[in-house]
């Protein structure tokens, strides 16, 4: 299916959902809704992106799955509420609950989940808090948040400096990024081994610029990271102390030019927090694997979620 040339998200439709007082945007497509035997796959994006990052992968997965592709709370066309003092409304627990509510509204009780970057962290918490919902789980170019913070050294802090910049008290990072938000956005999208912006489709880049380069989008992204460095770590430590692990089979994909490949051991790091089997592989990419290697990424996801590996 290489070289797909279609209209933007051809065959998909978009919809706004109200979930516990929050408005969530999602694209829906793939196998028909009346195909009750089709596997359901929830695709979650990362920072500083929107659901648009999945376009080329989604077109390749559409013949095999019923696809739900939302914008996370704080991103895209989903609501971007002001952060609370403890950042709890941007915790991965709350963001995961958003998506469980979204899937319930669509009539999906059990489904597959794949997340890239921040979306993978939301997916991880979903698998812990709602194991009865997650059939299979794939995480892309991350290891667990607590693991990454506990192993912070000069190499990691230098490569992922934004983890420590975005968590500073408001409005310092918001004001700094807001001075030239488009430049900042492009620098993030072209970094972490991605080697420029050639991998980003023009309509996706416009979506990222429209949704991130404003005060609400920048603040929401900062709140996502502030939560990750505070309340999320509380939740993660509680889960580990209780011996709570991911029950679903897990696949991890990571880029061989990325920070995760250089500084961590993805298979071992995920196996440490999983009860079930962990499989995966490094791909010839930087951090943005679904956009840098859409065909290979779609193939790996299809094989895993269809139970072929």
Automatic annotation (TrEMBL):
InterPro entries the record matches: AB_hydrolase_1 (IPR000073), AB_hydrolase_fold (IPR029058), Epox_hydrolase-like (IPR000639)
Q: Which UniProt keywords apply?
A: Hydrolase
The answer on whether this UniProt entry bears the keyword ATP-binding reads: no
Q: What are this entry's molecular-function GO terms?
A: hydrolase activity
Pfam families reported for this sequence? Abhydrolase_1
Where in the numbering of this chain does the AB hydrolase-1 domain appear? 39-164
UniProt keyword Hydrolase present = yes
| PANTHER family tied to this protein | EPOXIDE HYDROLASE
Name recorded for this polypeptide: Haloacetate dehalogenase
